[in-house]
Amino acid sequence: MTIHQHMEGQTMAKPDYVMQTYIRCTLDTLWDALTDPEEIKKYHFITDHIRKDGDTTGYDFAPGAPMLRCRDIRLDPKTRIEQTFEGLWEDAGPPSRFVYLLREEGEVCSLTLEHYDLAFPVIHGEGVADGWARMLAGLKTYLETGATVRFADPALDAGGAP
Fold this sequence. Notes:
Blueprint: H1 3-8, E1 17-23, H2 27-35, H3 37-40, E2 49-53, E3 56-62, E4 65-76, E5 80-87, E6 96-105, E7 108-116, H4 127-145, H5 154-157
Antiparallel strand pairs: 1-7, 2-3, 3-4, 4-5, 5-6, 6-7
């Protein structure tokens, strides 16, 4: 534990899932894309029904059909975003939390995602691992090309949960 972490009372808990990517963009652009619902709508892999109400961001499959609720825990401008992750679909499991860590590296930004407190195993290509891969691929594509993109999941088209 570093002195800084000790001073803030943080522990060194190991995340259940980690993913890292590098995106050719500015830190300002990346921060806005991760925190502004109007920007998130342009790359979220399932929905463009996203709204912010105070410290809570709601995601709906369609208007009135809740999918996910995320509440801000900690926002350190342009370096860290920590939020709860509460799936609202059937069998979503209890709420967990995730952290985005942002860092500028020359002409690119490093984005690391850490997901904690998952109540189920992470399986490559399924569930949370598949969702995050689609989400960050959409984000990277959008920020580097300006193209709105959806990486649809065939299970969702058949009515399955993310």
